[in-house]
């Protein structure tokens, strides 16, 4: 069992907490088309209001689920498997955040491509 500073474990939850806040902001920005400050903005989501709402709702829910996984699983697994090198813990945490963000984008884009064509029009099977 590793001996990891509890401060480091707390720092590891901060990216998850920030992702959780981002997910909540995305969910709330879904009703504001287009949001000027925050939102899941891609070429597809800015085409029309329906694509905007779907993209922000979906990305918000995914961000919340990924944040919960980050907050719970990452510090626990690091505590179990870590050898105590705090610099490596923080660097692996940053890698995990980048991986989580890429997963969020890939899954959301896949969902949107199933729902809408390239012009932002709903596909007929989803009406």
List keywords for this structure.
69% helix; 127 residues; mainly alpha; 0% strand
Give me the secondary-structure category.
Answer: mainly alpha
Number of helical regions: 3
Largest sheet: none
Shape label: elongated
What integer value in Å does the Rg equal? 17 Å
Low-confidence stretches: none
Distance between the termini: 53 Å
**Helix coverage percent of residues?**
55-70%
Write down the domain tally. 1
Tally of extended strands? Answer: 0
Q: In percent terms, what proportion of residues is strand?
A: under 5%
Mean pLDDT: 78
User: Helix and strand string, N-terminal first?
Assistant: HHH
Question: TL;DR?
Answer:
The chain has 127 residues and is mainly α.
Can you describe this structure?
With 127 residues, the chain is an all-alpha fold. The chain has one domain. The protein has 3 helices and no strands. The longest helix has 33 residues. The termini are far apart.
Helix/strand layout:
Layout: H1 6-29, H2 49-81, H3 86-115
């Amino acid at each position: 069992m590793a001996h990891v500073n509890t401060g480091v474990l707390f720092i590891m939850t901060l990216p998850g907490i920030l992702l959780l806040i981002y997910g909540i902001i995305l969910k709330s920005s879904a009703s504001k088309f287009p949001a000027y400050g925050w939102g899941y903005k891609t070429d597809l989501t800015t085409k029309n209001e329906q694509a905007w709402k779907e993209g922000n709702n979906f990305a918000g829910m995914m961000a919340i689920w990924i944040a919960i996984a980050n907050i719970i699983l990452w510090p626990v697994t690091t505590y179990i498997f870590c050898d105590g090198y705090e610099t490596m813990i923080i660097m692996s945490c940053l890698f995990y955040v980048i991986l989580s963000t890429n997963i969020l984008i890939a899954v959301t884009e896949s969902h949107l491509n199933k729902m809408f064509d390239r012009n932002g029009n709903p596909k007929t099977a989803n009406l």
